[in-house]
Amino acid sequence: MSMENDIERVLYSEADIQKLVNKLADQINHDYADTDELVVVSVLTGAMMFTTDLFKRIKVMASLDSVDLSSYAGATTESTGTVELIQDLTNSIEGKDVLVVEDIVDTGRTLAKLVDVLKDRGAKSLKICTLFDKPDRRVADVKADYVGQIVPNEFIVGYGLDYNFLYRNLPYVGVLKPEVYR
């Protein structure tokens, strides 16, 4: 069985995604040109591919860390509403500029929880970069500073985005056929 058979249509090709990553990296490089050290915090596991591609294009002095949070449980397309911190940062962010990198901002619950946690740790500044933003689903008051693309309220997978831990390895982003998750 091929993963491609489960995709209704491709929204963003590999080339489209790389253009978005380049655009975001240019904005970040401009905005952080004078920083002493930028701490890039990847939100696992979905943002791994995006973070890797983005981090390679960041030209300022930067370190990389990660956190893992979840508000989804197994084979579901709906958030449980409860956000759990699964893996914490390994280094202190006190007094540093922090850029949180997320694959998609959907309900915003996960990101709102993470922002609260990081603000309590004394970051000098805190900004959010997301490849995709789905504002139609937002329930938490959170807004990304850097947005690659606003996406429709459809269930998308690929390039790190998953359904039931699968489809992350697709090199593009596509809409998952509803019969796959219903």
Could you walk me through the main structural features you see in this protein, from its secondary elements to its overall organization?
With 182 residues, the chain is α/β, with parallel strands linked by helices. The protein has one domain (4-68, 84-177): 3-Layer(aba) Sandwich (Rossmann fold). The chain has 4 helices and 9 strands. The strands form 2 sheets. It has a 6-stranded mixed sheet, with helices on both faces. A 3-stranded antiparallel sheet has the order 1-9-8. The longest helix has 18 residues, at 14-31. The two termini are 18 Å apart. 32% of the residues are buried. The model has no long low-confidence stretch (mean pLDDT 93).
What topology does this entry show?
Layout: E1 7-12, H1 14-31, E2 38-44, H2 48-55, E3 62-70, E4 84-87, E5 97-105, H3 109-119, E6 125-133, E7 146-150, E8 156-157, E9 173-176, H4 178-181
Parallel strand pairs: 2-3, 2-5, 5-6, 6-7
Antiparallel strand pairs: 1-9, 3-4, 8-9
Helix pairs in contact: 1-2
Key attributes of the depicted protein:
single chain; Rossmann fold; 6-stranded mixed β-sheet; 4 helices; hypoxanthine phosphoribosyltransferase activity; purine salvage; glycosyltransferase; metal-binding
